[in-house]
Amino acid sequence: MLHQRNHDHATDMLNRNGLENALNASFNNTIIAEGKAYLSVILVQFTNGERVQARIGCEGLDQLLTEFEQKVAELTSQIHYFSRISTTELALATVVPAFDDQYLPMLCSQIANIAKQGFIYHSQEVHLHTYMGVANSYHTQDPAQLINNAFHAALACKESGELVTFFTQADQQDQKAFNQLEHYLLQAVRNDDLILYFQPKVELNSQKWIGAEVLLRWKHPVLGDISNEALIHMAEQNGLIIEVGYFVLRNAIDRASEWIEFAPDFCLSINVSAKQICSPVFADKVTALLEQYELPPRNLELELTESCLVSNFDIAKSNIETLTDLGVKFALDDFGTGYASFNYLKKLPFHALKIDKEFLTNVLDNAQDKSILRSIITIAKKLNKQVVVEGVEALEQHQFVAGEQCDVGQGYYYAKPMPRDILKFNFKNSTVAYTVHHTLIAALSLHNP
């Protein structure tokens, strides 16, 4: 019974509970207690593990990981414990002499080489792709924290593209701050403390507001104002992006359902993350919200970046097609910054594309940027896609994109992001969408958002 509690039943390696118990006992080792050596945990993440499992099955992956463990064990007698932390993650604990700076880097390099060499399963050659995070006991002698430190180091690998990352004292301080931010953000989401701002989207021919993009703001009493970009990055890092994304969807759709009473053609644009669009229940959730708040699907546009489509294209495609059939519009955001943007335009029913502001920043002075922008617009028009240009900040930029037959503009030249009441004021006091100049009137009329 004790063995079952501490071991993975498929591979007979230690599980996380077993590893924590083993580490705890190892801290009493004489050479570690006297500072002559320290314990290191190397967390090995197999980034293609789930794909390998889908290809050869659960038993196949179990066999590969067991073989991987055996090959790594042959490298050195200093590896004391192997553990299967999750389906596609292994951890190993090794004792490192206090003044040996070469042992860990060399061991990690050897582990990576074993993964690259490949394995044979039922005549199939299989390769495992790894990231490794390394944490040492001189930062903490709490077994759970030591494993968590290795996990955070492995996450840093994914962001940087490095094969191995070592947890440092600076990481420890960053992690404490990050954990505090995570706690604050979770509270903010659940207490409805996040604020939605709206940046108008302008029809270039008439300069009339035809809709708005939703942006997220957070006014924290200690941290101050936190921008949309910082919020989304934080939510993605700590796993709250689904919860934050649903908060935005629910509240934004609720607001839009009020506004269409006096602006029936108003279209609300909401950014969607990769985790959302690749969730099998995403289309159902959006449909339920539209029904709950009685917002016609044609008044909603969801914006996706190319990177959103990479992790699970099939599920993303299914969600997009289901909601498009319902009447929801989709826009491909940051167009032109990815290598497969045009390919996605062919494969998916995008209503519009948003040209990234990078192409507009120097368009008046840079002939190459001007040519690229014109080419994108020409192809989009031939594909019958609406062209939206973001980052319009000056009259000359507006004149250029309008002259190139772009459909919609967005940026500080037209209007800055604003609270809902100011946006509502503009739409409610006109039977058509308000022009740029009315922004000042609204701002002067409303002192509090």
UniProtKB/TrEMBL annotation:
One of its GO terms (molecular function) is cyclic-guanylate-specific phosphodiesterase activity. InterPro entries: Cyclic-di-GMP_PDE-like, EAL_dom, EAL_sf, GGDEF_dom, Nucleotide_cyclase, Rev_trsase/Diguanyl_cyclase. It holds the Pfam family GGDEF. Residues 178-431 form the EAL domain. This is Diguanylate cyclase. It comes from Vibrio maritimus.
